[in-house]
Amino acid sequence: MQELQGTVPVFKTPQELDRAVRNYQVSDLKGFELFRQWLAIRNASLEQSRVELAGDRIPGDDSY
């Protein structure tokens, strides 16, 4: 799996991710290219969900 990491696109913003999902849905990808795009979308989605959760803290939560 490590050899795939260098070739997988990285989407940084929610707009890039949305555009990638739309392109993924309308394209006719097959084989490695299909997996590569799926992996890039998955990685970006997981990364963005971590960012959203990190900012969703309750003030004073760590004092309990």
Explain this structure to me?
The structure is a single chain. Helices cover about 65% and strands about 0% of the residues. The chain has about 60 residues and is mainly α. The chain has a domain at about 15-55.
Mind sketching the topology for me?
Blueprint: H1 2-5, H2 14-26, H3 31-54
In short:
The protein has 64 residues and is mostly helical. The chain has helices at residues 2-5, 14-26, 31-54.
Task: Sum up the structure in keywords.
about 60 residues, mainly alpha, 3 helices
Question: Main beta sheet, described?
Answer: none
Provide the gyration radius in Å.
Answer: 16 Å
Class of secondary structure makeup: mainly alpha
What best-fitting shape do the alpha-carbon axes yield? Answer: elongated
- Give the number of DSSP strands: 0
**Helicity range of the residues?**
55-70%
The poorly predicted ranges are none
SSE string, helix = H, strand = E? HHH
Question: What is the terminal separation in angstroms?
Answer: 41 Å
- Tally of alpha and pi helices: 3
Strand content: under 5%
* Mean pLDDT across every amino acid position: 79
